[in-house]
Amino acid sequence: MRQAPLSPQMTVALPVLGAASILLAWQYLLPLLGVPAYIVPTPTAIFGVFQRNFALLMDNLRPTLIEALAGFVIGNLAAVLLAVLFVHSRVLQAAYFPIVLFFNTIPILALSPIIILIFGLGMTPKIVIAAVICFFPTLVNMIRGLDSASDNEHELFRVLSATRSEIFWSLRLPRALPMLFSSLRIASATAVIGAIVGEWIGSDKGLGALIIQATFNYQSDRLYAAIVLSSSLSIALFCIVVLIERRVIRY
Amino acid sequence: MPDAIEARQLDVGYGGRQTAVKVLTGLDLTVAAGSFLSILGPSGCGKSTLLRVVADLLDPLGGTISVLGETPHTVRSRRDVGFVFQDSTLLPWRTVRDNVRLPLGVGQRSLTRKIEDRSTELLELMGLGGLGERLPHQLSGGQRQRVAIARALLGEPKLLLMDEPFGALDEITRDRLNDELLALWRRTSTTILFVTHSIAEAAYLGERVIVLAANPGRVVKDLDMRPFKQEGNRCKREDPAIVAAMADLRAALERAS
């Protein structure tokens, strides 16, 4: 039998209660079970890092935020532009899309040292890695989105003698927006991953560098605090994308 | 005044000229300007394909066709043709009013005449007065088709092509829209080509009904309905003469299937 839907109050309260129960178990149960603090520090210990080392955390958040944001913008913009080019030229798509596919099969961890070799140790390689990791899902989704108008919709525009650019702006692009936003939501998380991976390989600044330093120094509370901050950054980017999506897509 | 449509030995198909699958073969058809023609036929007989050739959405493989005395391309470029699809083909991100105004936003470059923004008037005419700011998903199926008709009428087309526009609607809504369409046709001098699967709808709406047969598509029945109707293409659905004409059309349709 189908369960009755939850009330609006319960829909809000249950996830909060769920998270609180896990935090409580984490705080009190894990030490009782003998899990050492250098492996899993308690939530209060992690929170303590935010109080004690707030400036350090913010200093490391800033470069990661800039790299992730710049990578997000550049990677998605490049993907959208290439998708527009591909849907308007089947020849270009046939010639170069397989190469892009091949490029996508290279693991980002294998590609990152090459990018660092090319661009050096500054922020640029991290931005490039974040951009590369955002690029492919957006490209594929955008090509599908721009091609997703129905035959009848295309015929309607043809009956109206619409030009190619009118078809693009009034039909193809609005049709593609839901798919674009679903890939932007994915990219909001992957851009942060890209920036952090870049920082692991060659940086002394950023959340990625902080994670590596904290791991090697057995500062597990600092490590967990950096993880919480990375996750919060992804969530913040995700929420911004969702807010923009709600304003843009009303149907 | 030239005929609205004059087709001679028209061959239409899909695919290249050499490998094409022919849907219509050797079709001869003349449609007088200002008339209401219903087109009946089994699935795959080429009813919709014929509309697509008239609208310049598909090139014929052979034969000749003139629309309003000119090529389909010229007529389409001049926006003298309106098309209503079976699914209303409303753009979901545009409000009802903006959907009706779509012809003002696109295709203006090829246009020599000026199209007025008659969206308010057309929305009123189609009984959509208070719904202009709604989005398509907030409308019923019948309301969506009314919007599609209003959009097709915005450019004041001389020829309105309707491809099973009421096929997905319930019977009551369909009957109501039939009456509204007839009232609209009487008020304008628009020629209407109306494709339908419903014999009753074809007989009620058309001044003339043609039945197409499949494999290959050709006209197997051409029935002038005017003798059965009063002035202005008026009739009652249950009129014995209309019922008899429907039986005649049904027999032709059965032979064609």
UniProtKB/TrEMBL annotation, chain A:
Q: Name one Pfam family in it.
A: BPD_transp_1
Q: Does the keyword Transport apply?
A: yes
Task: State any GO BP term from the record.
Answer: transmembrane transport
Subcellular location, in the record's words?
Answer: Cell membrane
InterPro entries, per this entry? MetI-like, MetI-like_sf
Source domain of life? Bacteria
Grouped into one coarse class, the protein's main location is membrane
The residues covered by the ABC transmembrane type-1 domain are 61-245
Q: How does it sit in the membrane?
A: Multi-pass membrane protein
- Keyword Transmembrane helix appears in the UniProt entry: yes
Residue stretches spanning the membrane: 65-87, 99-121, 127-146, 180-203, 223-244
Q: Say which family it is in.
A: Belongs to the binding-protein-dependent transport system permease family.
Q: What is this protein called?
A: ABC transporter permease
Q: Which organism is it from?
A: Mesorhizobium atlanticum
- Provide the taxonomic classification: Bacteria, Pseudomonadati, Pseudomonadota, Alphaproteobacteria, Hyphomicrobiales
From TrEMBL, chain B:
What CDD domains is this protein classified in?
Answer: ABC_NrtD_SsuB_transporters (cd03293)
Gene Ontology MF annotations: ATP binding; ATP hydrolysis activity
PROSITE patterns per the record?
ABC_TRANSPORTER_1 (PS00211), ABC_TRANSPORTER_2 (PS50893)
Does the UniProt entry include the keyword Nucleotide-binding?
A: yes
The record's listing under Pfam families reads: ABC_tran (PF00005)
Q: Which UniProt keywords apply?
A: ATP-binding, Nucleotide-binding, Transport
Q: What is this protein called?
A: ABC transporter ATP-binding protein
What are the transmembrane regions? none
Where does the ABC transporter domain lie?
Answer: 7-239
InterPro entries, per this entry?
AAA+_ATPase, ABC_transporter-like_ATP-bd, ABC_transporter-like_CS, ABC_transporter_ATP-bind, P-loop_NTPase
Please give the SMART domains that the UniProt record associates with this protein.
Answer: AAA
* UniProt family annotation: Belongs to the ABC transporter superfamily.
Query: Gene3D superfamilies from the xrefs?
Result: P-loop containing nucleotide triphosphate hydrolases
